[in-house]
Amino acid sequence: MTQPQPQPGILDIQLYVGGKSSVQGVRDILKLSSNENPNGPPASAQQALAEAASTLHRYPSSDHSGLRAALAELHGLEAQRIICGCGSDELISFLCQAYAGPEVEVIHTEHGFLMYRLYAMAAGARLVCVPEAERHVDVEAILSAITPRTGMIFIANPGNPTGTKISDEDLAELIAKTPKTVVIVLDGAYADYVEGWDGGARFVEAHDNVVMLRTLSKMYGLGGLRVGWGYGPQHIIDVLNRVRGPFNISAPALAAGEAAVRDHDFVIQHRAQNNAARAYLAEELAALGVASDPSDANFLLARFASQEQAEACDDHLQSLGILVRRVGSYGLPECLRITVPDMAGCARVVQAVRSFLEKTP
């Protein structure tokens, strides 16, 4: 060797590529490629961010007590069992760092969020990909994949990029039949869009091996600040805090996050707006022959006749300034993931897809 070498597996990681935000020569952009809130963040969070500007010379709180207290109050949880991260992505990294590694198997589903694979590979773990059933997580397939080497199971619920949700009954079966030595991670990045659902918190309360992840990037519109959180058994949270850097979230992000979490009206209003627009967009696309599974998130997974048709439609949408997400890297090359915009944006998407189909033989 003539130069330093990384740990085995690191060079096998394919770099994550975010959703497009611009098209050369096109000005009127409708960005629907990253599942962002079309309304932006709450005004209360924007004000808190501005007020934090005068204290940028101070280090942030290392225990995130204000944000954890707000989350505990909102969701009826124990604050000491909440951990905050630089987005929920960082918490996925902590989990893999603490509970995966060489000879440890990490289970994910075939259309699951890419970061599960990337962070597990970075930890040197062995990936075990299990099939889904028509874009729905298959509990029996997961259970069949468990071996004595299994250390962790990642499940996005609702799924990304599928938008489909696992029932609590299926989750209960999975947890009951999984060895207690295996960490089960319930990633609820889109749980805020399911009215009246706790995102899996009740399973965390009842079991010593279940962790729930959430984020403020989607519903709360704080993707640019990177604020996520997790809830788990005390013994797991204590371990994760040992690998967490003391200042992993900036002071402005903590201030904006706490203000957003306390802005209950914003969530109620945006959830209603999103779910109404989502239903309209799904119905209108279906009328054009573009199907999608019922989604519980802030996006639809539009299915086309082939990969070629999906990519051609994406090219057409880009020419009109509409940016969606190709999901071939998720094993769904014939699909496009479309973030749900406001009603005007939905109408623009429908018209663009209609114009594409009308000119396609």
Note the topology.
Elements: E1 30-31, H1 43-51, H2 65-75, E2 82-85, H3 87-99, E3 105-109, H4 114-122, E4 126-130, H5 139-145, E5 150-156, H6 168-177, E6 183-187, H7 201-206, E7 210-215, E8 228-231, H8 234-243, H9 251-261, H10 264-287, E9 299-303, H11 307-319, E10 322-323, E11 325-326, E12 335-339, H12 343-359
Structural commentary:
Helices cover 39% and strands 14% of the residues. With 361 residues, it is of the alpha/beta class. The strands form 3 sheets. A 7-stranded mixed β-sheet has the order 2-8-7-6-5-3-4, sandwiched between helices. It has a 3-stranded antiparallel β-sheet with strand order 9-12-11, with helices on one face. The radius of gyration is 21 Å and the shape is globular. The protein starts with 29 loop residues before the first strand and ends with a helix. 46% of the residues are buried.
Between the first and last Cα atoms, what is the distance in angstroms? 56 Å
Fraction in helix: 25-40%
**Range of strand content:** 5-15%
- Report the radius of gyration as a whole number of Å: 21 Å
How many helical stretches? 12
CATH top level of the largest domain is: Alpha Beta
